[in-house]
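Hi team,

As requested, here is the filled-out complex form for the NAP run. I kept the field names the same as last time so the parser does not choke. Let me know if anything looks off before we queue the next batch.

— J.
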Amino acid sequence: MSSSALERPLTVVLLGGGTVGSSVARLLLGNARDIEERVGAPVHLQSVAVRDVDRARPGVPAELLTADAASAAASGADIVVELIGGIEPARTLILSAMAAGSSVVTANKALLAADGATLYEAAARYGVDLYFEAAVAGAIPLLRPLRESLAGDKVTAVLGIVNGTTNYILTRMDEEGADYAQVLADAQALGYAEADPTADVEGFDAAAKAAILAELAFHTRVTLDDVHCEGISHVTADDIRAAQQMGFVIKLLAVAERNDRGVIVRVHPAMLPRDHPLASVRGAFNAVFVEAESAGEVMFYGRGAGGDPTASAVLGDLVTAARNRVSGGRGPGESTYSNLPVLPVGDAITRYYVNLAVADKPGVLASIATAFSDNDVSIQVVRQDGHGDEASLVVRTHLATDADLQRTVQQLKELDTVRQVLGVMRVEGEAGE
Ligand code: NAP
Ligand code: HSE
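And here is what came back:
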């Protein structure tokens, strides 16, 4: 084998110089000698496209900044790194970069989950690489293990915490009783949140990541529209207290499961036992369990958001794409051959916590128990708190389908004895029926 097919320096263009882009630029320039050794050729940062070229970005030389993202993308650089985010202009810029022969590295989960197929098709058409390790779980090496290390196994489930902002918020609400709005502002200041933090708190960011994970894990096409998505904006201090009283903690979970009929992908807040490994994942950290037939359970843990941690994953991809240029090889393309149906969330099977404000009088418990049994939902534990007008019943169920539980809740809402359904949440991570 020849030592190197390429004798010239490799060129890199950055599209975006915000939280992640400016970290990538700084680290690429600061670690240039090591990166050159690892790639086998010098890697030269050509330009950084931003909106506002007059804003100083520490560690990023002002002469590299350009407001002309379209020309930078289409310049024919060896590698174009897209760190603008969102659908447009990111998609158009990536496609024009590929058409000009550039390999692309991106952290853009929103675009990959909405229209990854178009990017994969263009990468194949133009014979270039598409890498996106930073799109899911920040610094954690997770997509490459799914795409490569577990490529010979059959993955059956992926379960994890994949949004740093919401995990940071829920951790501080749990540990300090902190106020939601203040903690969200702190997460934004720390660079964890998306440009529009609604994507974080309403679960869309985690849903995009869940779609990407499910597609890679199960070799089948999954897009954002296939993911059932609930965020944390309706999680109350009462829910957090109720979870604490029962020995649980609330986390925003992403779950992708494969059964013999298809796949189910969902993102929602859930209660976890405090001794569950995911319960101890605090702050902006992420953790993901992958279950595979032969490997068993594999867990990934690390920083899920923030400029430098995310830049680490981007630079890993950049080095890989650069090595491919040097050797003349290419990374893996899209793998969706399984073509599995995406099943509705109603088919998902979990346990539930239901908190009801009830009339404190004879017969209440019987009417509530009937609503559960009418819909095939078996009760595991019932606890009454308070009495008189303050009475509430907390019910925890055995395993049930989501559809049966939703019907139960509807029936409970129609009972005279139920004054209000105060909270309904899935419970994950308990053993048994
Ligand atoms: P950001 O701080 O908002 O940075 C976006 C950058 O894009 C800014 O430099 C902005 O320019 C530039 N930009 C926006 N529109 C542009 C346009 N039309 N033309 C040229 N430049 C444009 O976002 P970020 O947090 O770095 O995130 C970037 C990507 O990484 C997103 O896809 C995000 O989902 C992903 N990601 C972020 C994190 C994280 O922790 N932040 C983690 C993993 C993945 P100005 O600076 O001039 O406004
Ligand atoms: N806003 C995202 C998060 C960034 O909080 O996890 C990392 O993808």
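Two things worth flagging: The domain at 151-302 is CATH 3.30.360.10 (Dihydrodipicolinate Reductase; domain 2). The CA atoms of residues 6 and 41 lie 8 Å apart.

Thanks,
J.
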